[in-house]
Amino acid sequence: MEDLKKLLHSAAITDLLNRYFVALDERQFEPASMRQIFAEGALVQRPNRTTMRGPEAIGQSHSQSFCRFRATQHLPSGHMITLTSDATAQFRVNVVAMHLWAAGAGDPSANPDDNYFLAGAVLEGEAALGQDGWRIVRQSSRAVWRQGTGFQQMLATQ
């Protein structure tokens, strides 16, 4: 594959991954938004090994999970895109994410300004080029570190 084509595909996949993190932070979990990111039948695995399949199920799961937070901010970096063919690629992204617990969630005894947790993770997966552009077909995330309040409460509710 020529260098320019590789660069264009890598940029498109990086954009796709960044749109995923925007969808998380802006709570864009409706099926239409998820279909702009995930292929039909896409598989997502969380750090606790919970899996979801398909854009609608992924969006529903994210909606249920993120209702515990009043705000989140995901900061992706170090996008590594490896094209495996003209229409498939593997990716790896480092992510630092801030999660501010909603009222009554996390550690209810903590000051609301101190009721949050940070997480560092690695997101890995595969994307495929289809008729509507690049979509994620498989994705897993692995927590590298976590720090903050209320994390044990979150584990108890998953």
Short description:
This protein has 158 residues and is α+β, with helices and mostly antiparallel strands. The chain has helices at residues 3-25, 31-35, 55-66, 151-157; strands at residues 38-45, 51-53, 69-83, 88-101, 116-130, 133-148.
Radius of gyration: 16 Å
Low-confidence regions: none
Number of helices: 4
**Helical residues, percent:** 25-40%
Q: Kindly report how far apart the N and C termini lie.
A: 43 Å
Shape: elongated
Description:
There is one protein chain. The termini are far apart. The model has no long low-confidence stretch (mean pLDDT 93). Helices cover 30% and strands 45% of the residues. With 158 residues, the chain is of the alpha+beta class. A hairpin with a 4-residue loop joins β3 and β4 (88-101). It is elongated and about 55 Å long. A six-stranded mixed beta sheet has the order 2-1-6-5-4-3, covered by helices on one side. The longest helix is centred in the first third of the chain and has 23 residues, at 3-25.
